[in-house]
Write a structure and sequence with these properties.
Maf protein, 159 residues, 5 strands
Length: 159
Amino acid sequence: MEAEDLALNVQKKLIEQHKTIAFAESCTGGFLSQLMTSNPGSSECFLGSFITYSNTLKEKILGVKESTLAQQGAVSKETVEEMVSGVFRLTNADFAVAISGVAGPDGGNEKTPVGTVFYALGEKGKWVESGSFHLRGDRKSIIAYSSYYVLALLYRKLI
């Protein structure tokens, strides 16, 4: 499957199943949402996205605990899991995706170097899966590859 077709295929699967989705994006800054809305008919399944780039918005909008951000950091499994919970709490989406990472070229450290990305995705009331991966490349490629990666994970859950 071509990368450009991935969002369209996710959209088709969601529509076939009469399901909806919403996102919480940090490091991708809306790129994941742009992929979904670039196809006609996306409003049948895509509810919207919370672009919570700052810790303040992660906390105030999505309900990520201040203690999680302080102890685990914004780029962590715990944070993206709380972001997904916030999406489910704020929307009536059947599926949710959250992503947070260090796209670079600055901002990395020993624990979370540039290219580190955490994600969580889930189906409301059924399951949440989270994990991380590390990418190399420039900022734009890290943002794009991260978005395609989580869409591919979601697509596999939908088929």
